[in-house]
Each structure stands twice: as C-alpha cells, then as structure tokens.
C-alpha cells in the first residue's frame, strides 16, 4: 500500500477514541464481529483498571496518510512476572488492516517498548488480564462469539506464523445444543443425570445459591476457590483481589445470583459455578454502548437473549474426582431449562485443562471457537 506509515503513542482522549473506533471501520459489514464495550475499553485506556496497581502499559496507533490502519497495546504485569520468574510483556488491543507491513510495524513498536523496560519476551494477544479477550481466532469465523470472546480476521494468524511466533496456549469455547425429549428441553445427558443423583445422595454434599446480601463473604469464597482450582495449571498466575474485584464488578449488572452456585462438603465451600445470560447477543445489537441511545437498545435486547454462557466451573483440587462438579452442572441446567435458553456457551478454557475438556467431550459439546496466544523472544 502507498503512503508513509507512522506509529504514535496514544496520549489524548482523541487518540483513545480513534483506537476504540477503529474496529468499527475494520469490521464494517462483518455480521460475526461483536464490539467490545466502549466504556470498558476507555477505562483501560485512561488507566482506571486495577491492572495498573501492579502493572504498566501504553497504546499505539498506526496511521497512513492520517488515517488509522492499526492499533496495539503493550503492558507488563510485574506481579505475574515475579510469580513465574519471567520478564515478559503482553500485547493486546490489537487490530490492523490486511497489510503485513502494518502488522510488523505495530509488533516491532511493542517489542521496542518492552525491550527498553528490560523484557525478554512478548506474549499475546491478551488485553491485558488473563481473562481479557485472549488469542487470535483460529477457525470458525462463521459464528458470532460468546460473552467476552473476541473475533479476528484469518490473516492475523497467517502473519503471526510467518513471523515465526511460537504457540503459547489455545483457549477453547464449546457450544452445547440441548435435546428435546417429550417436548422438554434436556441440557444434561441421562447417564450424567443418574450419576449426579447418586452423588447427591451423599449427605456430606450440598449445593446453594450465592447470597448477594453477604457480598463480601461470597466474594472471598469465590476468589479462594478460583485461585485454588487453577493452581495446578503450569502457567497460571494467581489473580489479585483487586483484579478479581474489578472483574466481578463488571459482571454485577448482568449477574443472576441464582446462577452462581456453591458446592459444599461438610458445610465448607469447595467449588462454584458461574453462568450469565449470553449478553454478547445484546452487545451485538447495541453497538458496544458507543452512543447514549445504545443503552435503551441494550435494555430491550437483554430481555430477548436466547443463550446462556457458562463461564466458570471451579473446584478445589482436593475435592476433585468425587462427582461434585456434576451437582453444580445438574442444578445449573435446571435453571437453563427454566429460563428457556436454547443453547449453552461454555467458555473459555485452556487446552491444557484436561478436566474441563474431557467433560465437554463426554457431554457432546462442540468446539466452536479456538483462540491462540503466541510468545516471541524480543531481539536485542
């Protein structure tokens, strides 16, 4: 493409709006792109996110002849680096036109930023927390993504692999479409239902809904179980209380406390499940809350959601292989049927999480999204 390419750091609100606006132009006409929420992105760009309690970041715009042709953010999670003994930076907020020169220039600028700060590797895309839109989409570009999942054109993966980047991890999203039996929607295969009933007969086990009247108590249970459940994965970094609190606060407007379930053993919370209405359907209709009138559209479409997103199933490793997860899944699917949902999104889980992926296969879930993060050594 003609024209001089310029990379500049985001410093003003005008720059921030240009960065957040760019995907609307890039994906114009793509029916499967769902915009990220405008207010949430601006809070990141204004450094209002809890990430900055132990992290740093900058964002850059690529322009050609004055027009934005690409965006990137690059950050450092100092606490995560200390935990793993890494000196890694993370790139995210990435978008670019179909031009490999733009792709390379943006990544080179991110690497330069990281190199100056003593980093040895660049990992991403991930914007920037562990659960924030990780990975370039690999295959299945024909379906909209579920809640808090991304979208990307195929050429991102092509450019990354031609650059010699190494796969770091794949994150998977599954889709489950229930059966109809005698006119009833059945979300749980019969044989798993029988197993769940057998487990439920153990008097030591019970399941309860979250009680938001005691929010702080419930929050501490969730944080403890979440970090314990993922502690066995090789690249897991414990989530900080501040980061997790931000995540939970973002969910509260759409949270149904009946779809937050704790599993108890001898009265102690040892596991939890979290499901949310698949608000991606509504975000798809209301432009990511870019303009004030989009809030009225969100109010309307949020009442016509046809799917549910089962976001988290977390169990303390000391209580695995007892069938406890089946109790949570059984109770959750009863709620799905009660609310009339037509299908379930289960996301996201790492390809290194054997328990979740084995369960997904057993209940005949379809892998409908795969997102790949990469890692590349930063040259001197």
Describe the overall structure.
The mean pLDDT is 90. It is globular, with a radius of gyration of 21 Å. Strands 1, 2, 3, 4, 5, 6, 7, 10, 11, 12, 13, 14 and 15 form a 13-stranded mixed β-sheet that branches. Strands 8-9 form a two-stranded antiparallel ribbon. It folds into two domains: 5-170, 3-Layer(aba) Sandwich (Aminopeptidase); 178-341, Gcn5-related N-acetyltransferase (GNAT) (Aminopeptidase), CATH 3.40.630. With 380 residues, the chain is an alpha+beta fold. It is built from twelve helices and 15 strands. α6 packs across α11. The chain has helices spanning 13-26, 38-45, 78-84, 100-116, 155-162, 190-200, 215-230, 241-251, 280-285, 294-301, 324-339, 354-362; strands at residues 5-9, 55-64, 67-77, 88-96, 121-124, 136-137, 166-176, 179-181, 184-186, 205-209, 260-265, 268-277, 307-315, 343-350, 366-377. The longest helix is centred in the first third of the chain and has 17 residues, at 100-116.
Key traits:
single chain; 380 residues; alpha+beta; Aminopeptidase; 2 domains; 13-stranded mixed β-sheet; 15 strands; globular
CATH architecture of the largest domain: 3-Layer(aba) Sandwich
The helix count comes to: 12
Number of beta strands: 15
The fold-level CATH name of the largest domain is Aminopeptidase
Helix/strand structural class: alpha+beta
H-E string: EHHEEHEHEEHEEEHEHHEEHHEHEHE
Largest sheet: 13 strands, mixed
Average pLDDT score:
90
């Amino acid at each position: 493409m003609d024209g001089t390419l310029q990379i500049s750091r985001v410093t003003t609100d005008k720059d921030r709006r240009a960065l957040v606006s760019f995907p609307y132009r890039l994906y114009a006409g793509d029916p499967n792109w769902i915009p990220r929420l405008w207010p949430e992105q601006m809070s990141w760009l204004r450094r209002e996110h809890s990430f900055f309690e132990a992290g740093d970041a900058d964002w850059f715009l690529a322009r050609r002849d004055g027009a934005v042709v690409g965006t990137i953010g690059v950050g450092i999670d100092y606490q995560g680096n200390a935990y793993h003994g890494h000196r890694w930076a993370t790139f995210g907020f990435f978008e670019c036109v179909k031009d490999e020169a733009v792709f390379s220039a943006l990544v080179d600028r991110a690497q330069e930023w990281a190199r100056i700060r003593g980093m040895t590797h660049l990992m991403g895309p991930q914007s920037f927390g562990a659960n924030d839109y990780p990975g370039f989409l690999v295959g299945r570009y024909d379906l909209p993504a579920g809640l808090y999942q991304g979208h990307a054109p195929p050429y991102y993966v092509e450019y990354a692999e031609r650059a010699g980047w190494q796969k770091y991890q794949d994150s998977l999203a599954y889709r489950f479409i229930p059966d109809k039996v005698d006119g009833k929607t059945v979300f749980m295969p019969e044989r798993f239902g029988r197993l769940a009933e057998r487990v439920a007969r153990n008097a030591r086990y019970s399941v309860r809904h979250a009680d938001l009247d005691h929010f702080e108590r419930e929050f501490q249970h969730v944080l403890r179980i979440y970090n314990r459940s993922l502690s066995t994965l090789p690249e897991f970094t414990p989530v900080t209380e501040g980061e997790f609190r931000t995540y939970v606060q973002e969910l509260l407007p759409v949270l149904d406390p009946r779809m937050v379930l704790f599993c108890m053993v001898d009265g102690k919370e040892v596991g939890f499940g979290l499901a949310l209405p698949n608000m991606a359907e509504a975000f798809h209709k209301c432009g990511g809350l870019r303009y004030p009138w989009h809030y009225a559209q969100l109010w309307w479409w949020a009442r016509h959601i046809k799917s549910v997103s089962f976001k988290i199933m977390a169990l303390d490793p000391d209580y695995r292989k007892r069938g406890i997860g089946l109790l949570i899944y059984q109770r959750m699917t009863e709620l799905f049927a009660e609310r009339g949902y037509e299908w379930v999104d289960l996301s996201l889980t790492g390809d290194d999480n054997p328990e979740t992926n084995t369960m997904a296969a057993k209940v005949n879930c379809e892998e409908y999204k795969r997102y790949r993060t990469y890692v590349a050594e930063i040259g001197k």
